[in-house]
Amino acid sequence: MSGDDWTQLVLRFFEQEAAKENCLIESNYMLVDQVWRGKSREIVLALEHENTERIVNRLLEKEVAHLIDLRSRMKVGIFYPSAGDEATLMKEIHLRISNAAASVQIPGEQYMFILGFTTRKEGQQAIQFKATILDQLGAVKVHREHVILRSH
C-alpha cells in the first residue's frame, strides 16, 4: 500500500467516526489535514496524519505546530518516526505543549499522538502503534501500545 493510499485509508476512518458523532468534516483547514466541526461550527477535533516525514524537527515545525496553534479541544497527530527518534519526538511535543499552555490554555484541551513503527510479530510484518494522550499542559494521561499484523 502506498503512502497516499494509507493516508486516505486513515482519513476515511476518521470521516466515518465523525459521521457517527454528527460532525461535519473539513479537509486541509489552516494546513491541518482534517477538522471535525460541531453543531455550532466549532472545531471539536483536529487531525494531522503524516506518514512520509521521519525527521523530528520537520514533524514538530509543521504537523505538531499546526495542532498546537489551532483552537480545538481534541487534537490528534498520527506519525511514523524512526524508532530511535521516538523519545526525542515525545519530549519535544511535551515541551512545546507546555510552553504554549504558559501563554494560552484551552480548558479541557487534550492531545493524542499515535506513533507507528514497522516491526514483526509471529514472524509476520506488523505495525506497532503507541498512543499517548496528553492534557493541555503536556502531561501524559494515558499510554497504550498495540501491534497489528499487516495484511498482504
Largest sheet: 7 strands, mixed
Strand content: 35-45%
N-to-C SSE string, H for helix and E for strand: HEEEHEHEEE
Number of E-type strands: 7
What distance lies between the first and last C-alpha atoms, to the nearest angstrom?
A: 9 Å
Whole-number radius of gyration? 15 Å
What class would the helix/strand composition place it in?
alpha/beta
Lateral arrangement of strands in the main beta sheet: 1-2-3-4-5-6-7
Structure description:
This protein is α/β, with parallel strands linked by helices. It has a single domain, classed as Trna Endonuclease, Chain: A, domain 1, CATH 3.40.1350. Helix content is 33%, strand content 39%. It is built from 3 helices and 7 strands. The chain has helices at residues 3-20, 56-69, 86-103, and strands at 24-29, 32-37, 43-50, 74-79, 110-121, 124-135, 140-149. The protein has a 7-stranded mixed beta sheet, with helices on both faces. Helix 2 (56-69) runs parallel beside helix 3 (86-103). The termini are close together. The model has no long low-confidence stretch (mean pLDDT 92).
Topology:
Layout: H1 3-20, E1 24-29, E2 32-37, E3 43-50, H2 56-69, E4 74-79, H3 86-103, E5 110-121, E6 124-135, E7 140-149
Parallel strand pairs: 3-4, 4-5
Antiparallel strand pairs: 1-2, 2-3, 5-6, 6-7
What's this, in brief?
With 152 residues, the protein is α/β, with parallel strands linked by helices. It is built from three helices and seven strands; from the N terminus they run H-E-E-E-H-E-H-E-E-E.
